[in-house]
Amino acid sequence: MTVTRELLAYYEQDREHGRLREGRDRLEFWRTQDVLRRSLRPAPARVLDVGGGTGVHAEWLVADGYEVELLDPVPLHVERASELAGVTARLGDARELPVPDASVDAVLLLGPLYHLAERSDRVRALAEARRAVRPGGLVAAATINRYAAVHHMVHTGAYAEERQREAAHAAAKNGIMLSPGRGFPAYFHDPDEVPGEFADAGLPAAERYGLEGAFWLYGDVDEWLDDPERRTLLLDAQRSMESVPSLLGVSGHLLTIARRPGAP
């Protein structure tokens, strides 16, 4: 991803470290974990976690027995991830992966596509992931859904602010989300455009999974996530409808998965 001064300044505030570890964003974390555990080949296997932040997913992957190398363009993230037992971390760009061809079993892009506003850059990142995985290997990419900002701002009350409302509707129209106060753009996908980007990168037959469904907007979702028994019910409920086409765009995030053509 292009690391602008604004993007670096935002992530150097260390906001990303706790985002998926607390509050309602845990739903995104546990659903991502759920889909990946059903999709990855059994450990031991080598996983390249591109744009892996401070290692929130690398940590559980290592615990599950995977060999994980994390790449991220933010020095603070790499420093944090390097402190995790079993995780190798270094600086890297999703569009130019510093690994040999067909050298890993899976490539995870659980953040880079958010910050690649140009379609050509997103396809390039996916093509690099395809190059890096072995035939039959898995490529998984997370995207933010086109109307996520409108949903989120209504939920939090920020929609009442004119600048926030205008930014949310601009993202819904053209995909470019420029959050007031951040100074850098993010790209929000229409769920129907994601398979085309995968296909153009040489990854046909992509499968899409809505991560949070509508549950991320529920007022009491934290209470469900805090209670292990109710959390299991919530995750089961979303799993039952995770790939229903008419519901994909309700989720805040989409996880799309494809395999590199060829026999493993």
UniProtKB/TrEMBL annotation:
Transmembrane segments: none
Alphabetical list of CDD domains matching this protein: AdoMet_MTases
Residue ranges occupied by any Methyltransferase domain in the UniProt entry: 47-137
InterPro entries: Methyltransf_25, SAM-dependent_MTases_sf
Highest taxon of the lineage: Bacteria
Residues of the signal peptide: none
Entry protein name: Methyltransferase domain-containing protein
